[in-house]
Amino acid sequence: MRCPYCHHSESRVVDSRASEEGVAIRRRRECLACERRFTTYERIEEEPLIIIKKDGRREPFKREKIINGLRKACEKRPLSFETFEKIADEVEQEIRKRNETETPSSVIGELIMERLKEIDEVAYVRFASVYRQFKDLDIFMRELQHLLGAKKKQE
């Protein structure tokens, strides 16, 4: 590791510890030439996830888009920002478990809806109405009836 002060190429590790909830290792180093200390972080290099949009375009996965969509669907609902982050984390983990570098946006939408259905039915219907692009009231009513039917089966 090159020293940021004198650019000497050798240093020794003084201290190592887990950082960022175990996702990275923080190392305190000391330059063998100038003896100044500096910090480095070691992280797993993950392959970037690519999302295939409905029109065939490809773009990098951005968890912020999930959080923004959830924020809109859950407006004036009793859900916290931490809940949105948890859903975004779960969706990203689920996609990474599949070991595919490209994922259709429809898969992401379905994963989000599964989680919203369990947490808040109103937010689920709001999200589904935008995501599934309900064209008329009949389609919207069928989704509500499906939701009510599933709820009755659980009781």
Automatic annotation (TrEMBL):
The keyword rRNA-binding does not apply. PROSITE patterns: ATP_CONE. Coiled coil: none annotated. GO terms for molecular function: ATP binding; DNA binding; zinc ion binding. A zinc finger (unnamed) spans 3-34. Residues 49-139 form the ATP-cone domain. Its cofactor is Zn(2+). GO terms for biological process: negative regulation of DNA-templated transcription. Binds 1 zinc ion. InterPro entries: ATP-cone_dom (IPR005144), NrdR-like_N (IPR055173), RNR_NrdR-like (IPR003796). It holds the Pfam family ATP-cone. It comes from the Bacteria. Keywords: ATP-binding, DNA-binding, Metal-binding, Nucleotide-binding, Repressor, Transcription, Transcription regulation, Zinc, Zinc-finger. Belongs to the NrdR family. NCBIfam families: transcriptional regulator NrdR. Negatively regulates transcription of bacterial ribonucleotide reductase nrd genes and operons by binding to NrdR-boxes. This is Transcriptional repressor NrdR. It comes from Capillibacterium thermochitinicola. The gene is nrdR.
